[in-house]
UniProtKB/TrEMBL annotation:
Residues 253-299 form the DUF1731 domain. The lineage of its organism: Bacteria, Pseudomonadati, Bacteroidota, Flavobacteriia, Flavobacteriales. Coiled coil: none annotated. It comes from the Bacteria. InterPro entries: DUF1731, Epimerase_deHydtase, NAD(P)-bd_dom_sf, SDR39U1. Belongs to the NAD(P)-dependent epimerase/dehydratase family. SDR39U1 subfamily. Signal peptide: none annotated. This is TIGR01777 family protein. SUPFAM superfamilies: NAD(P)-binding Rossmann-fold domains. Pfam families: DUF1731, Epimerase.
Length: 301
């Protein structure tokens, strides 16, 4: 089997590539950087530039499925212009792939796209599954709604369409966890706001595992990419401190302060989404990391 991955050189992409190779699945990948193009037997890079509608169509050769992870990071200050970058980087990449499939001969049977749990409304009490109709009115909620709508247009090509709504990804080198760990390591760790907001987390290995599971079994529809046991922000912070054997004595960090420092992006720390993993488990996926402490210990020890 051969799969085409966009965003293959990023945090999630690298983990998926590793699991694909373990299963003898060859990978083609698209990159905007000529320097990142490799030509190995099971890992071949191809250039694209979605801003200019450029794509090397040779990337489709022998490919049966596409995993789409492309999109600008949300971990940069959300100025008005950067909000456009966040949205358009997701829509334009999908649009270019779809237009390419419409024009070129291909063997694509499935498109799996990243999405985000930011589509669910902020709530301390609700428990969300994939059937939830309510959607967040926040900026991220609007981005995810448009992102998923663009992904759904691939159904016009008679391919299986799958969407993985990703939660808080735990990895020891990239993403949110190193930022959470840094102040705790130096004795400045503290929960944010009330600390009661839910964090639906997932270990990077399990997230990659879910993408590969959906690929292998040609699963269709929406799946939450979260671990079975969400935790509150307070519990997450305390568990990080416990694993690192560091004290927590500072008061919780006020929302107003983080809004001042981060601007609109502060909602990433304060929004609460408690999200169910039951659907992906019912499909046969078995999580390696079910609880937060062993997940953190595997990354921080």
């Amino acid at each position: 089997m051969k799969v085409l991955i966009t965003g293959a050189t990023g945090l999630i992409g690298q983990a998926i590539v590793s699991q694909c190779h373990n299963l003898n699945i060859a990978v083609h990948y698209l990159t905007t950087s000529q320097e990142k193009i490799s030509q190995q037997e099971n890992y071949k890079g191809f250039y694209w530039n979605p801003k200019n509608n450029e794509i090397d169509v040779a990337c489709l050769e022998g490919v049966e499925a596409i995993i789409n992870l492309a999109g600008a990071t949300i971990s940069k200050r959300w100025t008005a212009s950067y909000k456009n970058v966040i949205l358009n980087s997701r829509l334009n990449t999908l649009r270019l792939i779809k237009e390419t499939l419409e024009k070129e001969k291909h063997e694509i049977k499935q498109v799996i796209s990243a999405s985000a749990i930011g589509i669910y409304p902020d709530s301390l009490t609700n428990y969300y599954d994939e059937g939830t109709k309510a959607t967040s009115t926040s900026f991220l909620g609007e981005v995810v709604e448009k992102w998923e709508a663009m992904t759904d247009t691939f159904q016009e090509l008679s391919v299986v369409v799958s969407k993985i709504r990703i939660g808080l990804v735990l990895d020891n080198e990239q993403g949110a966890l190193p930022q959470i760990v840094k102040p705790v390591k130096y004795g400045f760790g503290a929960a944010f706001g009330s600390g009661n907001q839910w964090q639906s987390w997932i270990h990077i290995k399990d997230l990659a595992g879910i993408f590969v599971h959906v690929l292998k079994h040609k699963l269709e529809g929406v799946f939450n990419g979260v671990a079975p046991n969400p935790v509150t922000n307070t519990e997450l912070t305390k568990t990080v401190a416990g694993v690192l054997n560091k004290p927590l004595f500072l008061p919780n960090i006020p929302k107003s302060l983080m809004k001042l420092i981060l601007g609109d992006m502060h909602i990433l720390l304060f929004e609460s989404q408690r999200v169910s993993s039951k659907k992906i488990e019912d499909s046969g996926y078995q999580f390696e990391y079910v609880n937060i402490k062993p997940a953190l210990a595997s990354l921080l020890d």
